């Protein structure tokens, strides 16, 4: 019994520390059990870990750009190889291993693919099972209003930020078991058939106009600088970064 209590307080200590680390950077973290994720995904997406293994999904909120990415961009001397956002988040995820040298942590980013091009993690599913953001999929709109030939991708909606956020990846604590982690259902903030249909249509057919992000009233959105950064194709971002450096430094 005493051992179990210590195990649980160790887990909540880990969860609190991760939360403290990310929150000042405009990032949110939500714990989940690997078993909750494995229960819903197809065989080839499952992780080969015990069901009670502790994992955390990381979300970027609208303030991530100004609180973390922009200072990083302005600090970095030379953009170097790769995307600045990916490099920034790789660095932040890697710091978690430094904070917890005693734990065996696997960090997986949203953009990581297997050689077969299959994503290493489905971050929308992770966000849903962690209770962070409801993942609205085609099967959640019944009766189905689209024809068989129409491909409809699902979209997650954050209760505070609507679509003004992104799911950045997961951290898996391979050596930590969390049998008593309470499961929280995500808030169903797009409850009606009409609104869900509208959400999926905006995300699939008009995602460039940003409107799917405003499917609910939100507490915060991307700044004009952030929108400009994300609208700019990665190959043109180095020039934009130089411009931002001149304007903001
Ligand atoms: C590949 C990819 C694309 C591809 C294909 C899209 C797709 N969904 O397949 C393309 C290039 C088209 C694309 C485009 C875009 N994408 Co994209 N994309 C991805 C990526 C890397 C993988 C998605 C994927 O391949 N999924 C595989 C399929 C099979 O998964 P699935 O359909 O969810 O099926 C699983 C679930 O159904 C689950 N499941 C089964 N039953 C149940 C039951 C429950 C309850 C649950 C929860 C789950 C569940 O099991 C299935 C797998 O076995 C993700 C990041 C990531 N690593 O997840 C971003 C991601 C989905 N994209 C994102 C975005 C924003 C976009 C764009 C707007 C462009 C952009 N980056 O700004 C456009 C919009 C889509 C469009 N209109 O074209 C965001 C979505 C954010 C959100 N709010 O949901 C993500 C999550 C990236 C991120 N960092 O946030 N994308």
Element layout with pairings:
Layout: H1 2-23, E1 27-33, H2 34-40, E2 53-60, H3 64-75, H4 84-99, E3 105-109, H5 123-129, E4 134-136, E5 155-157, E6 166-177, H6 193-205, H7 224-231, H8 237-248
Antiparallel strand pairs: 1-2, 2-6, 3-6, 4-5
Helix pairs in contact: 3-4
Bound molecules: cobalamin.
Could you characterize the architecture of this molecule?
The protein is α+β, with helices and mostly antiparallel strands and 249 residues long. The protein has one domain (2-248). 39% of the residues lie in helices and 15% in strands. It is built from 8 helices and 6 strands. The protein has helices at residues 2-23, 34-40, 64-75, 84-99, 123-129, 193-205, 224-231, 237-248; strands at 27-33, 53-60, 105-109, 134-136, 155-157, 166-177. The protein has a 4-stranded antiparallel β-sheet with strand order 1-2-6-3, sandwiched between helices. A two-stranded antiparallel sheet has the order 4-5. Helix 3 (64-75) packs across helix 4. The longest helix is centred in the N-terminal third of the chain and has 22 residues, at 2-23. The protein is globular, with a radius of gyration of 19 Å. Residues 1-5 have low confidence and may be disordered. The structure holds cobalamin. The site of cobalamin has 26 residues, from helix 5, strand 5, strand 6 and helix 6. Residues 40-42, 45, 110, 119, 121-125, 128-129, 135, 137, 153-156, 163, 166-168, 203-204, 207 line the site of cobalamin.
